[in-house]
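Hi there,

I know you've been waiting on this one. I reran it after we fixed the sequence typo, so this is the corrected version. Both the input and the resulting structure follow.
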Amino acid sequence: MSAPTISKLTPNSGPVGTTVLISGTNLASATTVRFGATTATILSNTSTSLFVTAPTGTGTVPVVVTTAAGSSTQNLQFTYNTTPSAPVISLLSPTSGPAAGGNLVTINGTNLLYTTAVSFGGTPATSFAVLSNTQISAVAPAGTGTAAVNVTNATGPSNNLTYTYVAAPTVTSITPVSGTTAGGNTVTINGTGFTGATGVTFSTTPSPSFAVISPTVMTAVVPPGVGTAPVTVTTTGGSTTGPNYTYSSGPVVTTATPSVGSTAGGDTVTITGSGLGGTTGVNFGTTPGTIVSVSDTSLGVVTPADVAGTVPINIATTGGTNSSISFSYVSPPVLTSITPTSGPAAGGTVVSITGQNLASTTDVVFVSATAVVAAASFTVNSDLSISATSPAAAAGNYALEVVTTSATFVPLPPILQQKTGTAGIFYLGNNSHDDSQPRKIGQIQHLQEGWILVSVTL
């Protein structure tokens, strides 16, 4: 350990009680500082500086710093002079700060060189430094409300300037709580004490812009980021960290089932993937679907009506958008005729089915009151025609149904009747005939629903 050295006294003259900065080396472990034969009070020290209060004395005296390694030998002197003029302060910067204190306040004025104390509402500054005869820096102590700031030298205190203590803000909620990694969306922040806000950060990244709407509401534009970021609001009263904001890379979509449906809409589509929990909307093309279920890995959406064709499924979440999958609208099938309308119970009859929108047929079934029997086989000839081979089935009356990727169509009567048992034709009320015309078998009108017995030779 080396003995201390001193290189400068600031100031090097003044009245008793002057705060003196001693600059040098090896000063951290100073045990005594003497002005002549009188010991000074050490206010603070580092390895290169000491702040002391000039003790009682007169004339010009040497200043010596002593540590365990020895004493300084440089011949620096301090001159005691007459009582200085009273200090005058003209400006505080800043004029407000956190109730917890700790911020640095610059005080401008005159006759400040021999300042011995700085007070905030009667509470001494945590520390202060005389920078020149016209400027002091002081660390504000803790406080509340407004405080009269003054400085004191051997002559007395200065005039007062007002310093305002500001309570730290609180942050209670943010909306939304997540968004894309690209940032750019606007978050509403709720809390208290936002007046005079000086900054908003997401983790350590400042918001590109923010606005104070009221003391309890502000908005901030989210900067780019990843992961989870605590949101911090800073005012002259301090900084407060609120809820976390989560950056999401956006939804990932793997499947949409079914991917084909009716132009009439109403199909429930299950969309699977990840990052779907924050879904805010699903559009089929530009038309919104109706969301019926949401989880992080699955969406249930009812399709809106649209014209035939393929449209992208646009999924919007708080973390971004995805339109990587599509949905095809297909017009529902329309049946106009079946020929023949009867056949043997053993099956094997080739039934010609005509209509429209039949190209996407997936099933042809024969339906009775007690059974559903699939066609033995079927061939889609065109969008207007299907050939289906009737299956073996119990004798009776069967509706023929065509199922396509967009809909199931139950044809109008007559019902396909197997050639076994009582012969006749079955009418199904209003669907079986034009209501403006009488129902006839030959020349005989029949107004009732049900089986109309006719004589048939098999």
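Quick highlight: Residues 236 and 452 are 93 Å apart (CA to CA).

Best,
R. S.
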